[in-house]
TrEMBL record:
Keywords: Cell membrane, Membrane, Transmembrane, Transmembrane helix. The chain crosses the membrane at residues 7-25, 37-55, 88-109, 142-159, 187-205. This is Cytochrome b561 bacterial/Ni-hydrogenase domain-containing protein. It comes from the Bacteria.
Amino acid sequence: MVKVWDGFIRGFHWLLVVGIVVLYISGDEGWLDLHFVTGYVLLALMLTRVIWGVFGSSTARLSALFHSPKAIISALLKDQPATGHNPAGSVMILVFFTLIFIQLLSGLMSSDDILVEGPLVQYVPYAWVELANDLHRDNIDLLLLAIGLHISAIIFYRIKGKKLVKTLITGHTTDSVSKPHMRSGKLAYIVFIVLAASLLLLWGQEPLLALWSVD
Ligand code: HEM
Ligand code: HEM
C-alpha cells in the first residue's frame, strides 16, 4: 500500500462536495444568508487548496496537473497506474478549479437586485454586476456538467476495477506506484480555519447574525 493522498486533500474533497451541494440548494431556494456564509467558507477552502498546491505533498501540487496532450490522450486510451491524478483526470480537475473560482468570484459581484448584494458589488461598475449575475447563473450549468462527467468517469474506472473512491477516503492505493513526497495536512487545515475566520469576520457578520437569529 502506498500513501498518495494526504489528510487535507481527502478532507478538502468531501468538504468541497458538501459546500457545492449546500450552495446549489441555498442559491436555488434564495436562502442567501446561508448561501453567503457557505460561499465564504468555500472560498477559504479553495484558496487553501491553491496554497497547498504550491507547498503541499507532491500529489497535491498544481504543477503536477499540467501534462502534454500526448500524455493526456495516452491516459485516456490505456490504463496506466499514476501516483496521484492521472493526466486525463488532471484536465478535469483544472476545469473544476476554473469553474469553481468563476462561480465564487461572480457570486461576490452578484446582486439579487432587491435586498442582497455580494461584498464586491460596491467596488465595481454596474455593467460588471450584470455580467457577474449572468455568469453566476450560466456557469452553474457547466459546473453541473463537469460534476456529471466526473462521477461517470469514477464509475467507469470502478467497472474496470479501480477503486479510486476508496483511495480518496483512506489515502492509500494498492497500485504499484512510486512513493510520493507527503506532507502532513494539519498545516493546511490551520490555514483554512484562519482564512475562513478572516473572511467571515470581514464579510460574513451580517449573514451569520441573520442565520443565528432565525428561530
Ligand atoms: C460536487 C461534486 C464534486 C466535485 C466538485 C468534485 C471535485 C473534485 C476535485 C476538484 C478533485 C481533485 C481533488 C484535488 O486534487 O484537490 C476530485 C477528485 C476525485 N473525486 Fe470528486 N468531486 C465531486 C463529487 C465526487 C463524488 C460524488 C465522488 C464519488 C463518487 C468523487 C470522487 C472523486 C475521486 C475518486 C477523486 C480522485 C480521482 C483520482 O484518483 O484522480 N467526486 N473531485
Ligand atoms: C461555488 C460557489 C457557488 C455556487 C455553486 C452558487 C450557486 C448559486 C445558484 C445555483 C444560484 C441561483 C441562481 C438562479 O437564481 O438561477 C445563486 C444565486 C446567487 N448567488 Fe451564488 N453560488 C456560489 C457562490 C456564491 C458566492 C461566494 C456569493 C457571494 C458572496 C454568491 C451570491 C449569490 C447571489 C447574490 C445570488 C442571487 C442572484 C439572483 O437572485 O439573481 N454565490 N448561486
